[in-house]
Amino acid sequence: MELAGDHLELLPHRPAAGCCSRPPPPLRSRRRELAHHQLHRLNVPDHQVDAMRVGLRSLTSTSVSTRVAYSHRCSNAYSTCCAPKPEVIPVETPSSDMLVDSFGRFHNYLRISLTERCNLRCQYCMPAEGVELTPKSELLSHDEIIRIANLFVISGVDKIRLTGGEPTVRKDLEDICLHLSGLKGLKTLAMTTNGIVLSKKLPRLKECGLNALNISLDTLIPAKFEFMTRRKGHSKVMESIDTAIQLGYDPVKVNCVIMRGTNDDEICDFVELTRHKPINVRFIEFMPFDGNVWNVKKLVPYAEILDKVRQHFKGVERLQDHPSDTAKNFKIDGHVGTISFITSMTEHFCAGCNRLRLLADGNFKVCLFGPSEVSLREPIHSGIDDAGLKEIISAAVKRKKAKHAGMFDIAKTANRPMIHIGG
């Protein structure tokens, strides 16, 4: 491991030429000694040294609560996930080495989960019995969210997306949006929501700087909505989509997870939403997470969805995608809106990945499908300064893999439920 930065460079022990009478100390101990020595040589106060130790420990472990809940995870969980080096597409110009991984990918997009709570119980998101939620006292506070977000923005992040759980259930959402939108350098403040209570909150959220919006909707049939989400509320989601259009959001992105035998018969009905309205329907391949009973038989591949669209609509044309786009984007002749495909399972887009994730409990995750996490909350509570926090973030980013595993390996790899990670 090497910590990025000028002050902490942990080098492997190399014995002097001809020296073989005594074996070198264990590498981990040697690194600890070097880090301790360099910190004190730089006159770093003892309390910050202690905070750095907490941060460095968290680079190879998760928070205490996560370790208990996920103690079955293995340190070699990525063993099947990466090629030696992918064809990486450079994106943007990095303004900080903190956000550049070992493959040259610059990460200017941060997704922040504000809560693990949700007012729906979608089948692809959580098990029927629900999930154990992190106690509120162990979640990031308002001020901690703003502090961490500010570190990312001054380092080059220009897009933040608020997720959950369901972000609109967090009482201080408006205040968080107001503070985040005021960060110098941030261009896009987005949110992914289920839309249940959005229509009433959206006018104020827009005033607070929310300028991009994704609304999750997996069926246009009210009875099926209740079956898929285990709750009522279809009409409220449709109202929220219309409200967003009225308020000038363009496009309003509608996220739709397609599952065979559940809603794959509605694909063309969703495309019809784009005919007269500035809606971007985003068809998402069904992805495996803990507790959502993923099965490859439920997966409807992107190619199959696109083929069905082309059979029913004329003039379906591919648009030029940005190198960091997660979606394959298409327009249809005569339609105001567009359609897109998120192909995580059948055609990954890791080479242009520019996304990082901050979970509600303060854990930092560099890949959606990787189980590795590093706590930022624990070092903060131990008194770490911003420079130390940036070292921890940088080291985690540098360890990001070339690409995530194939879908069958992902299905066998322990990971959190989607509601814990954030949509």
UniProtKB/TrEMBL annotation:
Residues 102-325 form the Radical SAM core domain. Its cofactor is [4Fe-4S] cluster. Its EC number is 4.1.99.22. It is an enzyme of class 4 (lyase). Pathway: Cofactor biosynthesis; molybdopterin biosynthesis. It comes from the Eukaryota. GO terms for biological process: Mo-molybdopterin cofactor biosynthetic process. One of its GO terms (molecular function) is 4 iron, 4 sulfur cluster binding. Keywords: 4Fe-4S, GTP-binding, Iron, Iron-sulfur, Lyase, Metal-binding, Molybdenum cofactor biosynthesis, Nucleotide-binding, S-adenosyl-L-methionine. InterPro entries: Aldolase_TIM, Elp3/MiaA/NifB-like_rSAM, MoaA, MoaA-like, MoaA_NifB_PqqE_Fe-S-bd_CS, MoaA_twitch, MoCo_biosynth_MoaA/MoaC, rSAM. Pfam families: Mob_synth_C (PF06463), Radical_SAM (PF04055). It catalyses: GTP + AH2 + S-adenosyl-L-methionine = (8S)-3',8-cyclo-7,8-dihydroguanosine 5'-triphosphate + 5'-deoxyadenosine + L-methionine + A + H(+). Coiled coil: none annotated. This is GTP 3',8-cyclase.
